[in-house]
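Reminder: ligand-aware prediction takes two inputs, not one.
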Amino acid sequence: MKVPSSVPGHVSFIMDGNGRWAAKRGKDRINGHFEGVESVRAIMEASVEWGVKYVSFFAFSEENWGRPESEVEGLMKLMLDSMVKELPLMLGNGIHFRVIGNMGRLSARLREAIEEIDRKTAGGKNLTMILFLSYSGRWDLQQAACRMADAGARELEPYLATAGIPDPDLMIRTSGEQRISNYMLWQLAYTEFVFTDTLWPDFRKEEYLAALEEFASRDRRFGKVK
Ligand code: IPE
Ligand code: IPE
Ligand code: MG
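Here is what comes back for the chain with magnesium ion:
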């Protein structure tokens, strides 16, 4: 397989279309989420191989708490099981695993697992992989503004949940939807967007390569004149 000519520093994904992938096959929505985990692994492995330093995934939004309880429970169990299962792969590939979001809404068990995996993988130098879980852009801005005010500070950026992480260079959303859905509202200010009709469970290495090629053809000006 070809390799990308150049890679962005931080690629972020709005993984969408799991439910529709399952429905197309007459299966329950959770099957789409199961298959979606395979895509996450494929992207993780390709990112290490191609030298992408940060890869992040919108896995569950604050609004997603409003889904039927059975789906929410299924998703939370899947997250826990998957992060435990993928730990050896992360350790073996030098991947630092992190989670960003409103952690207070997660179960104590999930929070403990996240903290443990973050700690165990903290030495990973090849790739930082971030899962946005119980996250929304407005929540992030809100909590950052409060903490900034409490500290009597004037600069917002250090208080964002993403502090220390470079803004995404490329954001890829699958499943044909062309919206942000309350993802990183501040951090996406100058990010390049790629929208694809491919449903998340079908998004693998080849689709990733195509998106990176599309990114390489973009002319980023950051408001300046070239
Ligand atoms: C994305 O797939 C995963 C989550 C938002 C948790 P969806 O579950 O939104 O799938 P569709 O959009 O209904 O097909
Ligand atoms: C966005 O997908 C959130 C995640 C991928 C976690 P949704 O499926 O929740 O977004 P909408 O409802 O189509 O905007
Ligand atoms: Mg969706």
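DSSP finds seven helices and six strands in the chain. The two ends are 34 Å apart (CA to CA). We will return to this case in the review session.
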